[in-house]
Amino acid sequence: MSKIVFDIESLGYPLESFDADTQTYLLRFADTAEKVEEVKKNLNLHPLSAQILCIALYNPDSQKGKVFYQSDTAEEYSSTDGSCQFISGTEEQILQNFWEVIPKYDQFITFNGRGFDCPFVLLRSAKLGIQTTRNLMPYRYDADIHCDLLEQLTYYQTTRRFSLDFYCKSFGIESPKTKGITGLDMRPLFEAKRFRTIAEYCYGDVRATADLFRRWDEFLNFRG
User: Fold this and answer.
1) N or C: which end of the chain has fewer CB within 10 A?
2) What are the pLDDT digits (tens) for 125-139?
3) H or E stretch including 61?
4) What is the pTM of this model?
5) In Å, how far from its chain's centre is CA 60?
6) 199 occurs within a structural domain
7) Which parts of the chain have pLDDT scores under 50?
8) Domain span at 192
9) Can you give the CATH number for the domain in which 101 is found?
């Protein structure tokens, strides 16, 4: 069975970029300065209020990857070990490239993909008029199609949820968060035009997810 791991990074548009009615709607329950800031931060999480900065893909069998990322210049380069190709483009091009790749694999693997990445990519594509090529939200309880490791490690959310960083540290897997970057850093990195840093951080996430998948597959994937 061919496999691909993927992950996205997103960034919310500034609240002030929305029209007055939309701002009023988004802030309707924000009656304190702290709640206003929380609304602004949460704009990152929704495909109708945020853009995709990067999509990283990694084949755990071949140990090869591709990362499609936003940049203000057209560029293409490879990782130092030659295992990953980084390709810049617009958000539309990122999504088009993703939809060309994803149907080639039998199984796709994510961490919290069902709760975030998959619906985000689907709805963002629809908003931008990008043709989708695969259902990223298949039957929830069939990990042979979509293996969402957060679902598997919580037994479909019957036990406590933890972050990817926490699971990696708990299983002795190197976490990309140890380099001092998290998803909260996307805005300052993007505004500073550190596009490659965002792309390489996202690639670190899919590498870590692949390592976590191997551990789950060896010890917890009961195939009957």
Assistant:
1) C
2) 999 999 999 999 999
3) none
4) 0.96
5) 17
6) yes
7) none
8) 3-8+54-219
9) 3.30.420.10
Between CA 4 and CA 202 the distance in angstroms is 15
Q: What integer pLDDT is reported at residue 80 of this predicted model? A: 92
> Is residue 196 situated within a structural domain?
yes
Rounded to whole angstroms, the Cα distance separating 80 from 60 reads 18
Position 178 scores a pLDDT of 63
Look at residue 22 in the predicted model and tell me its pLDDT.
97
Would you state the structure tokens that stand for residue 76, as one six-digit string?
């293409």
Count other Cβ atoms within 10 Å, centred on residue 221: 13
**Integer CA distances (angstroms), 192 to 17, 186, 195, 200, in order:** 19, 10, 8, 15
Which helix H or strand E contains 157, and what residues bound it?
none
Is 137 part of a structural domain of the chain?
yes
- Using the CB atoms, write b or e for 91-128: b if 16+ within 10 Å: beebbbbbbebbeebebbbbbbbbbbbbebbbebbeee
Cα 191 vs. chain centroid, distance in angstroms? Answer: 19
Kindly state whether residue 106 falls inside one of the protein's structural domains. yes
Query: Residue 182: what pLDDT?
Result: 82
